[in-house]
Specification:
- The chain has one domain: Alpha/Beta hydrolase fold, catalytic domain (Rossmann fold, 3-Layer(aba) Sandwich).
- β7, α4 and β8 form a beta-alpha-beta unit.
- The protein has an 8-stranded mixed beta sheet with strand order 1-2-4-3-5-6-7-8, with helices on both faces.
- With 227 residues, it is of the alpha/beta class.
């Protein structure tokens, strides 16, 4: 699988700011990190894990993915789904959350219309991100961390030709590796599975390894694709 062109990034002043934007069930809250001195060439939206199990945009894996993508030069938005934190609405079993993610991507597009568009998600958030990327041709790269293939339907990826980068801990008991290894071959190319040896679902003591595999894969051509 051929990765995206290497992102050239000259370190500059970064800022993290709280934002609110319109969602289909009311206002949604988010955190945006970007270089304050220039227009980004790349944007990314990161979706958090299950709202009913304590998932928020402050989750440590979501934070680490967002930080890693920002390190590649992206303006990155993480946000709370409906009913989480200060976001309006109530949990909607993934249906409304998909539209929340769509609204987040639209907000980023409207603010940086010339930038390339990436989408990422962790656990439940990866299911939402997968559905959205399958229906949005403008999304150039899809990053899924610990996708819950045993409990959610990822069949949309069987037809989606967006490049897919899948990060999975080998000691994850919530989203076990064998289930992913069974589903992964059915997903459309291009795709690459990145295993983090010994990592649990929440990448306890392995957040650095999570960053390392993402940086290696997304900074340039990737080799030895699993298909």
């Amino acid at each position: 699988m051929e990765g995206p062109a290497r992102v050239s990034r000259t370190p500059g002043p970064s800022r993290l700011r709280s934002i609110t934007f319109a969602g289909p069930a009311g206002s949604l809250e988010g955190l945006l990190v970007e270089d304050s001195a220039r227009e980004p060439a790349l944007t990314a939206v990161v979706c958090h894990p299950h709202p009913s199990h304590g998932g928020t945009m402050h989750n440590k894996v979501v934070h680490r993915v967002a930080s890693t993508l920002h390190g590649l030069g992206a303006s990155v938005l993480r946000f709370n789904f409906r009913g989480v934190g200060a976001s309006a609405g109530v949990y909607d079993r993934g249906v409304g959350e998909l539209e929340d993610a769509r609204a987040a991507c639209e907000w980023m597009r409207s603010h940086h219309p010339r930038a390339r568009r990436w989408l990422a998600g962790f656990s439940f958030g990866s299911w939402v991100a997968a559905q959205l990327a399958a229906s949005e041709p403008a999304i150039e790269q899809l990053i899924l961390v610990a996708p819950p293939v045993a409990s959610e339907d990822f069949s949309a990826l069987e037809r989606a030709t967006v490049p897919k980068w899948i990060v999975q801990g080998t000691a994850d008991t919530h989203c076990p590796l064998p289930a992913l290894e069974q589903a992964f071959p059915r997903w459309a190319d291009p795709k690459l599975m990145l295993r983090v040896e010994g990592a649990t679902h929440f990448f306890d003591k392995q957040l650095g390894a999570l960053s390392d595999v993402l940086l290696q894969a997304l900074s340039g051509p990737a080799h030895n694709a699993t298909s």
